[in-house]
Amino acid sequence: MLVDRFGNAFQNLSEQEQDTGERWIDGKPIYTKTIDVGQLFSGQQAHIKHGINIGHYIVVDPSYSYAFIDGLYINIPKPDVNANNVISLFVSNTEIVITCGSGASANSCVVTLRYTKA
């Protein structure tokens, strides 16, 4: 996260697209957007349209992507030695796909993406 000399964030989490002030290797601006995924259910797969016109770069920002599980905020994707407790994440050009193992669920979930535009 970019901060000023006083430690104030230049950007905040938002469901609206924001320019991060950073540049990709080719000089294109890097944008960020947070998507509220809502509740995750065990053993299910959620498909959420992100509505972004993707360039050639898109990643999940794990610093600001989390699920609220048993009173705790847990970063996602969430690996686990037990495959039933895993929450996996995949991002395509049109959607976010979240898969929960049979023992994993969350009261709420947000995913933050970083990307360049086409």
Short structural summary:
With 118 residues, the protein is mostly beta strands. The chain has strands at residues 18-23, 29-36, 45-49, 54-60, 66-69, 72-75, 87-91, 95-100, 108-117.
Keywords:
118 residues, mainly beta, 6-stranded antiparallel sheet, 3-stranded antiparallel sheet, globular
Secondary-structure map with pairings?
Blueprint: E1 18-23, E2 29-36, E3 45-49, E4 54-60, E5 66-69, E6 72-75, E7 87-91, E8 95-100, E9 108-117
Antiparallel strand pairs: 1-2, 2-9, 3-8, 4-9, 5-6, 5-9, 7-8
Biggest β-sheet: count, sense, barrel?
6 strands, antiparallel
Low-pLDDT sequence parts = none
Strand content: over 45%
| Average pLDDT rating | 86
- Calculate Rg over CA atoms: 15 Å
Walk me through the structure.
This protein has strands at residues 18-23, 29-36, 45-49, 54-60, 66-69, 72-75, 87-91, 95-100, 108-117. It is mainly beta. The protein has one domain. The strands form 2 sheets. Strands 1, 2, 4, 5, 6 and 9 form a 6-stranded antiparallel sheet that branches. A 3-stranded antiparallel sheet has the order 3-8-7, with no helix packed on it.
